[in-house]
Every structure is written in C-alpha cells, then in structure tokens.
Amino acid sequence: MKLTFFNPSQRYNQARKVYRFTVDVSDMVPVTVGSVRSWSVY
C-alpha cells in the first residue's frame, strides 16, 4: 500500500512524500510486514 502526503500551500515548491507499507491480508486481521519505506517525489 502506498500513502502520498503533500503540503497544499506549497504544492509546486515542496516535494511529495511517499510511504510504502507491505500488508499481509491472508488472515482475518491484516498485519504489516517488514519495514516502512519512504521517498520524495518531485
């Protein structure tokens, strides 16, 4: 799953920040697997 955050007042001057989570949905309750990765997108 990817979540992207941005600053609405600085849309053209500040990079968006993306966070990636790996989610295991094989059981009744979804759980995150591994570490969270993040990077900036211009």
Give the arrangement of secondary structure elements.
Elements: E1 2-5, E2 16-24, E3 31-41
Antiparallel strand pairs: 1-2, 2-3
Task: Give the rounded overall mean pLDDT.
Answer: 95
Which secondary-structure class do the elements indicate?
mainly beta
Q: State the share of residues found in helices, binned by percent.
A: under 10%
Kindly report how far apart the N and C termini lie. 20 Å
Total count of domains: 1
- The strands making up the biggest β-sheet line up spatially as 1-2-3
What's the order of the H and E elements?
A: EEE
List low-pLDDT spans: none
The Cα radius of gyration reads 14 Å
Report the sheet-strand fraction: over 45%
Tell me the major beta sheet: 3 strands, antiparallel
Number of strands: 3
Gross morphology: elongated
- Total number of helical segments? 0
Q: Your description of this structure?
A:
With 42 residues, the chain is mainly β. The chain has one domain (2-41). 0% of the residues lie in helices and 57% in strands. It has no helices and three strands. The protein has strands spanning 2-5, 16-24, 31-41. A three-stranded antiparallel β-sheet has the order 1-2-3, with no helix packed on it. It is elongated and about 40 Å long.
